[in-house]
Write a structure and sequence with these properties.
Strand 1 and strand 2 form a beta hairpin. This protein has two domains: 90 residues, DNA polymerase, domain 1; 164 residues, Intergrase catalytic core (hpI Integrase, Chain A, Orthogonal Bundle), CATH 1.10.443. It has twelve helices and three strands. It is mainly α. A three-stranded antiparallel sheet has the order 1-2-3.
Length: 275
């Protein structure tokens, strides 16, 4: 049985369950079906072999794909609800062993974490700069953050659209729930209303790396490194990258140049017929 027919068969079983066991309205069932059908089309593109092969990482990739194609945070949350119900059914029916959607955070912390990761990569920040970033330090309209790096040196870094959208989602739908009528000068807060600790953020990024089943260990510095490397590969000026990273000496920034160059050499050796 190919992936499409397997997935569609499980969808039909789930629809029957919703009608016969749950007694849901036609409108609600149609909404769930539409969400699951979109996910099914995504699976076809990814060549997933069966529902048993769908893992947490694939679902996270799908939600990111939906966000990148303009789906609002509210709509993505609804999609996640639909997927959770579907995979819970498959788990209860012993069709799959574990619910891959169960661990995906749809709580206020989830939106906060997404915004923190997007901003860390999107602006190349250090962990200390991220967790201590104040509300007055980000300008969503102009698209930049103002941070204080080593030696309390101030710098202004432009922020990309995806990171800005993630932060706006967090501010609109998550931060008020975390604060519960309290106030805080910090942009990113915990349920205690305080800033997150460095250790907590390291644990957070490690957990998401494991959930996504990434082969390489992800650290806060690796995202900062990716920020610089991707700018270099895109043709950015080294001095500009130095300013954005907050390096006092350009020789520190040049380390990233050497890494990017080495990656290109390795790719050439591996893939070029005369490499």
């Amino acid at each position: 049985m190919d992936s499409a027919s397997d997935y569609l068969q499980r969808m039909d079983q789930y629809r029957t369950f919703l009608i016969m066991e749950k007694g849901l309205s036609k409108k609600t069932i149609a909404a769930y079906s539409a969400d699951l059908m979109k996910f099914g089309l995504f699976l076809e593109k990814k060549k997933a072999t069966a529902v048993s092969d769908i893992d947490t990482g694939l679902i996270l990739t799908y939600l990111i794909h939906q966000r990148d194609h303009g789906l609002t945070a509210r709509s993505r949350a609804r999609h996640l609800v639909s997927l959770r119900g579907f995979f819970k059914f498959l788990t209860n029916e012993k069709i799959i062993e574990k619910n891959p959607a169960k661990q995906i955070d749809n709580k206020p912390e989830g939106l906060r974490d997404a915004a923190m990761l997007e901003l860390l990569y999107g602006a190349g920040l250090r962990v200390s700069e991220l967790i201590l970033l104040e509300m007055t330090g980000i300008n969503l309209e102009a698209g930049f953050v103002r941070v204080f790096g080593k030696g309390s040196k101030e710098r202004v870094v432009p922020v990309g659209r995806m990171a800005l959208t993630a932060v706006q989602d967090y501010l609109d739908r998550s931060r008020p729930l975390l604060l519960k009528n309290r106030s805080s000068v910090y942009l990113f807060v915990t349920r205690r209303g305080s800033a997150m600790t460095r250790q907590s953020f390291w644990n957070l990024i490690g957990r998401y790396g494991r959930l996504a089943k990434l082969k390489k260990k992800v650290t806060p510095h690796s995202l900062r490194h990716s920020f610089a490397t991707h700018l270099l590969e895109g043709g950015a000026d080294l001095r500009a990258i130095q300013m954005m990273l907050g390096h006092a000496d350009i020789s520190t920034t040049q380390i990233y140049t050497h890494v990017a160059h080495r990656q290109l050499v390795e790719a050439h050796k591996k893939y070029h017929p005369r490499g």
